Amino acid sequence: MEQYQELEHKAAGHDGTLTDTDGTLIFKPLNQREFAFYQSVQNGVEHSERQDQGDIPLESWMPVFLGVLNEGKNLSSDEKVTVITDGSSVHLDTKVTPAGDVPSQKYLVLQNLLAGFNKPNVLDIKLGKVLYDSDASDAKKLRMQEVSKTTTSGSLGFRICGMKIQRNSRCNDVLKDEHFEAGASDDEYIFVNKLLGRSRTKEDVKDAIDMFFAHDSLSVERRRQLKVMFLKRLQLFFNTLLDENVRMISSSLLFVYEGDVARWDEEQDADTILNESFMQEDSSDEEVETHPDSTGSTPQKTAVPLSSMSLIDFAHSRVTPGAGYDENVVEGVESLLEIFTDIAK
Ligand code: ADP
Ligand code: MN
């Protein structure tokens, strides 16, 4: 996958997630359960009877799922790679140049939630007290029980997984050396690793979340606006969860905001709660063609928000019709609501 590169602004997770050259899509190594979850949610399988009372459906909080990309060694270099989606297919003109024994790899094709952001600041928060699936091995269950017991996963139902942010002046107060990795000296970004989240307690996790928003070039008003926006999103997301029949183990909320002041000026601080504009104008088309080499036909978003909150990572999630809401996840969101109510003051 020549013109694909490793996703640069990643807050956590495994290697192997790729993005295309213009950063519209991401390609995440396929996991069957995650694939099934995206399909079921897009088909509305998890909705309860309480739905349609005006609450936002779960799908609207998730990245748009476009299908599965097959990268096979049997593809010749000028062959099109077919992305299978529900009801329509997307053809990506790619120059796949497989070296002899490259194993075939399948990817989930998803909306890149950072598309259009000039300087994204990203926070990954893992939801849930229980961090293992019923079918996990005994060893994994024990390991995950220990993680939960010793972190805010257990006490609050969520844990900071990681961040990729522009370094700000709160970082020195909150971060110890082992909590982050800095790039080259001219790189304004730092990667905050999982050790920060593991070291947090019920009492001081708020400081770490506050650090995420402490961008040095954003005015106090803009930072406050961000926190208020995320508080509103959490309130709406909480209502969504009460309607949904799902069980999500180690899913995350991904918080993103724009760190480029020029874009705030351009947008005159106008932000949207939900980013539903992705590929909207193409949604009626049967076929969407993307030509990475030419401009113009690539699906365009209409407006890029200044911040967004999305639910990601469904490798251990399933839809459970009739089972009621996901208590394990709801508790974590309640804790986040309390914290955001406090920091948004
Ligand atoms: P893993 O299973 O490896 O934990 P995740 O789905 O949690 O994979 O993704 C890991 C990281 O990749 C996230 O913390 C986030 O920073 C980034 N990421 C995941 N999905 C997207 C997306 N759709 N758009 C942008 N970034 C994403
Ligand atoms: Mn993850």
UniProtKB/TrEMBL annotation:
Sample GO molecular function, one term: inositol-1,4,5-trisphosphate 6-kinase activity
Keywords linked to the UniProt accession: Kinase, Transferase
| PANTHER family per record | INOSITOL POLYPHOSPHATE KINASE, INOSITOL POLYPHOSPHATE MULTIKINASE
Name the record gives this protein: Kinase
Polar residues composition bias: residue spans: 293-303
Q: What is its EC number?
A: 2.7.-.-
Instruction: Name the family.
Output: Belongs to the inositol phosphokinase (IPK) family.
**Primary enzyme class:** transferase
Q: Look up the domain of life of the source.
A: Eukaryota
Q: Which organism is it from?
A: Huiozyma naganishii (strain ATCC MYA-139 / BCRC 22969 / CBS 8797 / KCTC 17520 / NBRC 10181 / NCYC 3082 / Yp74L-3)
Q: Which SUPFAM superfamilies match?
A: SAICAR synthase-like (SSF56104)
Outline the segment boundaries, as ranges, of region: Disordered: 280-303
Q: Which gene encodes it?
A: KNAG0A04850
GO CC list: cytoplasm; nucleus
Q: Which GO terms describe its biological process?
A: inositol phosphate biosynthetic process; macroautophagy; negative regulation of transcription by RNA polymerase II; positive regulation of transcription by RNA polymerase II; protein stabilization; regulation of arginine metabolic process
Q: Which residues form a coiled coil?
A: none
